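Researcher: Here's the sequence for the chain we discussed earlier.
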Amino acid sequence: MIGPVLAARSDQELDRGSVLPDLRKAPITELQLVKYAGASGDYNLIHTDDETARTVGLEGVIAHGMLSMAFLGEYLCWLAGPESIRRLSVRFNEMVRPGDTLTCRGRVKEQITGNAGRQLLLEVWAENQRAERVTVGEAEVHIT
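Model: Thanks. This is the structure I predict for it:
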């Protein structure tokens, strides 16, 4: 099944270089970071305690890198549906802080047609309100 976003796109709109719609997230909150620590099992205090973060040279708490990766996973589910995602790999470029607003974006790198249907190779990234790409990656989704 194709997710509602890709299902509405023609083949021409999925050609190499095609820009995909954005998914904007609400600003990061400290409560969200505490909840994510519990959900992920990552209780490193640099994510939840300003004093600890400052003792290691940070300006204050930073978001878990995996949180921005999770947003990209959500983005792919929104685009293609969870059953269509074949791969997601990312690199963390910049720190994300409370108050940052992330927008997930993507572009088609390649469309591959084979016996099992079509695959899209996507460039994906999450950028903050300053247009800094905080998390960048590549994904592969299967569409039929």
